[in-house]
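Progress report, Aim 2. The chain analyzed during this reporting quarter is listed below.
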Amino acid sequence: MPAPAASLEPPPLAIVSGRVIPVASAPIEDGTVLLRGGRIEAVGADISVPSDAEVIDAAGRWVLPGFIEAHAHAGIHEESSGGAGDDTNESSAPVLPGLRALDAINIEDPGFDDALHGGITTVIVKPGSSNVFGGQTVALKTAGGPTVDDRILSDAVSLKSAFGENPTSAHGGSGRTPMTRMGIAMLIRQTLEDARHYRARRDIAASEGAPFAVDLGQETLVRLLEGELIWDVHAHRHDDIASALRIAEEYGLRLVINHGTEAYKLVDRIAERGLPVIVGPTLSARTKVELQGSRASTPAALTAAGVQVALITDHPQVPIHLLRVQAAVAVRAGLGREDAMRAITSTPAEIYGLQDRVGSLRPGADADVVIWSGDPLDLQSQAMHVIIAGQTAHLAGGAA
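Predicted structure tokens for the chain:
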């Protein structure tokens, strides 16, 4: 009888003796994180390390979950590629909900390598903000297989939408609606009304067994209306945020405010509705009118009111590896250190429904772990060892 085939599963990996910051629970001094089969098997101070485990000694170092960049354009706005590498906006029409960021991502964009240097293991890639409805977003791991499809965490995250100067500049200058904020709000409402009618016609056709022409954009909008997709809204000024609140309430949409530059002016209303705000980038200059109210203290003000806050770079607006710098700046402006850490780990995971997979160190979660030379909010610290799905994705020594 032939001998049984040897197991192809790699041995477990044990990270020992580090200062473990699970995020979702208290720090563990001299802790162990045990990884097996691409998942976290155990986290604690008294974990038995299997005899066949590969061991990484993290003594004197900090062990954290991989960071999450909740709003970036990595792969669709490639660096150093000019117009040929910029697929961020399909500006041929203001309403294009059928677009998918996934279909334009080049995983060889150096932004993904920079993310690893910054301890970022998950990124939510979004279309740009030139369109009133600009397409679907996608959550990716920042390293993995040879194609973007191998890195997908979720392709059913959200639908990007935009208020303010970007869509009016992109389309109003060509004599198309929207030329004003009134035009943006009208287009959003009319598009949602059309989607309601589309859904009714589709359902009637299905009940009658009649042929029906599928419209990809309308199908995406139906998923938005039914709550399957988050309404990811680019809104800086307080009046644009107010319009987003109003429309979300009218149509029962799962609103997440992106940027939220003047969200502090509506903090009570945002908190009352239990809406999250993706804040940033706070390191950028006030390059347009709607950024005049920018404040580094916005994350602290929102968090104090009970609002869920995530921090972002909007890469390449701010280089993606500076996500932790955004967090450090927020701490300097009054945000608690633990809140800042959650704002780049567990909070974005919860906002986008990814908390079972990423954002904290706990059994069953993906084995996305970063070993830091020290406190990652100390800008002298480095991401020494980045692990994604149990595999080494980055070791310290490169640039960025």
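The mean pLDDT is 95. The radius of gyration is 22 Å. These observations will guide the mutagenesis work planned for the next reporting period.
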